Q: What sequence folds into this?
């Protein structure tokens, strides 16, 4: 996907909403368990109810891999449904992959060519030869972990390496990699106070921001410190939207939550214009 399509979606929908499809059969409404493919039935209903205010969908692959081949088939059906019916909506395989070069190439091929995602999340611990194979795919984006929203982020990411914190070293170093213009970065909303310094290092790159809502992150702070002139943000919400109800009205409840977030986003986006 061309980044301009994503910019157009943001402008058209006045939204930077990314909906996380972290589908857990223990949490979906019970009546869906009677479906031939409950995971896909749930995802399709969520997509149908929220696509009008959503610019990206992000299935976390662990929730599909946990169900073996059937889960993988559900993931394939989900991405096919999105690509066939909403080709302008950005898709993210939240897989957090990263390995030596030839292995990363196979991961990239799986998510970009076989499944047809627009992007995949990666973990940069092994350095540039674990990330550059993903960046080699034209028209695809690699979303690299930078500063995450979990408590364990402080174990390594904020520790100083010389004069700078490790996450800053990661950001700075990644700019020198081949095809780095295809990089986006994960920065947790619960670390919003770090965003101003992050923007000093990567002023234009898109940031995928989880942690607004259920994890306590502030949308106001994310926009204040992290937004660019053209937004440059994808703010993810998973549980707060997809599990807004466990009853038969789950899709309507998801739509209401998504629309609530979109209205908040629209206020901030208007201030950028």
A:
């Amino acid at each position: 996907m061309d980044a301009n399509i994503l910019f157009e979606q943001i402008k058209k929908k006045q939204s930077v909403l990314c909906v996380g499809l972290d589908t857990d059969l223990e949490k979906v409404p019970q009546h869906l368990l009677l479906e031939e493919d409950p995971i896909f039935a749930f995802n399709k209903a969520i997509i149908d109810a929220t696509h009008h205010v959503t610019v990206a969908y992000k299935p976390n692959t662990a929730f599909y891999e946990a169900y073996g081949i059937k889960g993988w088939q559900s993931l394939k059906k989900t991405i096919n449904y999105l690509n066939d019916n909403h080709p302008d909506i950005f898709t993210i395989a939240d897989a957090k992959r990263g390995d030596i070069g030839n292995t990363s190439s196979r991961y990239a091929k799986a998510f970009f060519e076989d499944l047809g995602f627009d992007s995949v999340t990666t973990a940069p611990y092994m350095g540039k030869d674990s990330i550059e194979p993903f960046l080699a795919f034209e028209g695809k984006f690699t979303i690299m972990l930078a500063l995450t929203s979990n408590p364990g982020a402080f174990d390594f990411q904020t520790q100083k390496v010389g004069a700078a914190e490790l996450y800053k070293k990661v950001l700075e170093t990644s700019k020198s990699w081949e095809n780095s213009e295809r990089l986006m970065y994960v920065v947790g909303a619960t670390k919003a106070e770090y965003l101003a310094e992050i923007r000093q290092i990567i002023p234009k790159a898109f940031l995928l921001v989880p942690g607004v809502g259920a994890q306590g992150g502030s949308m106001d702070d994310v926009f204040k410190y992290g937004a660019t002139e053209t937004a440059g943000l994808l703010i993810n919400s998973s549980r707060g939207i997809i599990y807004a109800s466990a009853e038969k009205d789950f899709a309507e409840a998801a739509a209401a939550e998504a629309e609530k977030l979109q209205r908040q986003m629209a206020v901030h986006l208007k201030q950028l214009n």
Remarks:
- The beta strands are 17-20, 56-58, 90-97, 119-122, 141-147, 160-161, 164-165, 183-187, 207-209, 233-237.
- The mean pLDDT is 95.
- The chain has one domain: 3-272.
